[in-house]
Structure formats: C-alpha cells, structure tokens
Structure prediction request, 438 residues.
Amino acid sequence: MNKLAILGGAPVRTKIFPSYQTIGQEEKEAANKVFDSGILSNFIGAWHPNFYGGDRVIELEQKWADKYQARHAVSVNSATSGLYAAVGAVGVGPGDEVIVSPYTMSASVTAPLIFNAVPVFADIDPDTYCLSAETIREKITPRTKAIIVVHIFGQPADMDPIMQLAAKHNLIVIEDCAQVPMATYGGRPVGTLGHMGVFSLNYHKHIHCGEGGIVTTNDENFCERLMYIRNHAEAVAAAKMPNTLVNMIGFNFRLGEIEAAIAISQLDKADVLVEQRIENVKYLESKLDGIDCLNMPHVTNLNRHVYYVHALKYDPMQGGVSRDTVVDALKAELPSTELREKEGALIGKGYVKPLYHLPIFQNQMAYGNLKCPFQCPHYEGTIDYAPGLCPNAEKAHFKQVITHELMRPGMSICDLNDVANAFHKVFENLDQLQSLQS
Prediction:
C-alpha cells in the first residue's frame, strides 16, 4: 500500500521548491540609475510642474497605458490606494451603496467605507468565483452608485452583461485587476472593460516592484480626479479648480521613482512571465486529468485566464472526505518553497473567508461610536451581513476550493511532476483518510 505521508508514509518530495524570483539584472540596473540621479521621488503636493511626479513615474504610466490600450494610466503606491482613489473619483459618499464581492482581498470592500458609503455584497458565480450580472442585479437599489468587480484568481468576470446592466442603471464599474495582468475578455484587455481598472504591483503578483499599483481609465475626468486624490487634492483645488469639490480631500498615494523604474522593467517581462504560468497550468492539468472528484478551473472561450493561483474545485460528496482533510494530506506530501519556508507547501483551503464575516461587518462598526456609515443618518437603507448571505461564496470557501501556487514561473517539469504525483497519491488513497474525519 502507498501509505500517505500524513499517516506516516514517505512524502512524494522533500526537496524544497524553487522561489518565485522575477527580479533580475535589468531591475537592479534600473534602480541604480535612480540612485545615481539622486531623485528618489519628484512629487510635490501642490500645484507645480512636479505635481504629476518624476520621469520614471510618468514613463511607467505611459508604457502601461500603451500596453493595455488605455487612454490613461495613473500610478499609485498600492492597488489598495488605487481602489480608494477610484471610488473617490466616482464621487461616492455618505448614503451611497457600492456592490462588492465577498470573495476577495479586504481592500476591495473597504474602499467604499473610506468615503462613508455602504458595501453591499453580491454572491459569486460558482464556476468563475467572480461577480456576475445575475448576482449583481438583485442587489441594485436607488442608492447604488458603483460596482467593484473583482477578476479573481486570474479569471476575468463576464463583463459584457455586467456593463449592460450598469449602463441601464447609470452605474460606474471599477475593475479590480490585481490578479489578472495580461488577461483578456473577448480579446480585450481587462482594466479597459469598465470605467476604471486597478492593478497591483505587490511583491507576490505576476509582476511587481515590491509595492505599487496602476489605475487605467479611458475617461479624462476620472484620470484627473485620480491624480488629485493621489496627491493632496485639497492643496491644489484652488489653483487647478476641479469641476467638483466632491471627495477632493487627497492622500499621499504617490509611487517613488525606484519602484517605478523596477515596474518598467517588470512590464517588459510581463508577456513571458504570464505565458509561463499558462503553460505550467496546461501541463499540470494534463497530468491531473482523470481525478474524477477534482475539477480544473472553468475557462470560457471569451477568457484568457492568467492564473494568479490555480483554483481547483473538489467534490466532497464524491470524494468521501472533507476538502480540509484532503488539503492536509496534500501538504504533507510536498515541501515548502524557498523564501517562504515557514508556510509549508503552498496549497490552501479556499482563499479568504467571505468578507462579511469580518468583525467590521458583523458589528457594523467603522467610523466613531455612531456606527457610520452603516447607521449613518444619511443612509436610508438597511443592511444585513448575516452568515449565509452569499451561499455560493461560502460553499466555495468552506467546502470546495483548493488553491495552490505550485505552477508559478521557476517551476520545472520535474517540479510540476512532483506536484501531480502528490495529487494522484492522495486522491488514489482517499480511503486512508477516513480515519482522520471527525
């Protein structure tokens, strides 16, 4: 019998997996040129020629806009900042609602709170894990101002029906593109399908500069408002006179010249790095074929999936043991990854708990003791964040989804074979796991 490692057998592999390392000589040389220039940032938080930032920042924005076929790109110091700036640019404020996804990183749903608006959770599509027009439609009210659509795991949402629905109700759509650089929908780049698209340059994304973000838009007004909010809008309003003072309280969301220089080099590598992910997943899925209770990501003909993670759907009824037990067994068969040694094998139980479970929503407490914005005098709705609100998201997270990162660039065919062998070993011996069920 091929005894599972979780029960004392020998693991499939003990040699540590290679790190995900995309920073090379090009990035080092680009950063050194910034050091040699002596200008690490060239922003000034007042109306001035340097209000828009330094040479590298401006170059990055132009190259990003060209790459994504967008009219404008505005750099920020994180995708979180980009989401905040985008929601502010829309004009969201007290009494408004913004429809959001429950299955994403928290910044996608706290962005409305920054402007005292109320996040309203729509459920996810059970196949793509993104919002859909069907799940959004039932959440629209007269108070709805915008929709934040998250393209999750590398998969674009079905955007055409969403945009048609938004147009019908005069709503602004913000795309959270943190996990989908170079993804396309119907041949069109994500980030250009809605009114604004927010990308991440955080260190564990497809391409990165440590921390950073980019917001794309084809709208001149949104572009200007993004730039104001990024850089102390209140200090430039008198000189620049935006067409409205709504949300013209600015922040310091500025990107430095070193980060911009590194991001430019990374952008040059984006096509190759993303293609490596796609090819690695294609190879791995060919090796996983035949595991009946495990479904590969559902990718429509419209989409180019770029695999931030490889999200698999497990059927616990067919498998006979819980998803959590399966993941524990898989992790026991494989080693950790270099630079992330303390995390064990990079295989996860779901992604994040549906965000309405967080204390901020369960207690409806954000600003001050008056529970604004949830019980703000300006808010005429009522909101309920009780567990069970989004059954598709809860089923996916608590019972079905297995995520892993063992398909990133740097993984060799030998490495991928070890991953596939671990999956086969566990799924061919699920009966051994019965003893671990509670």
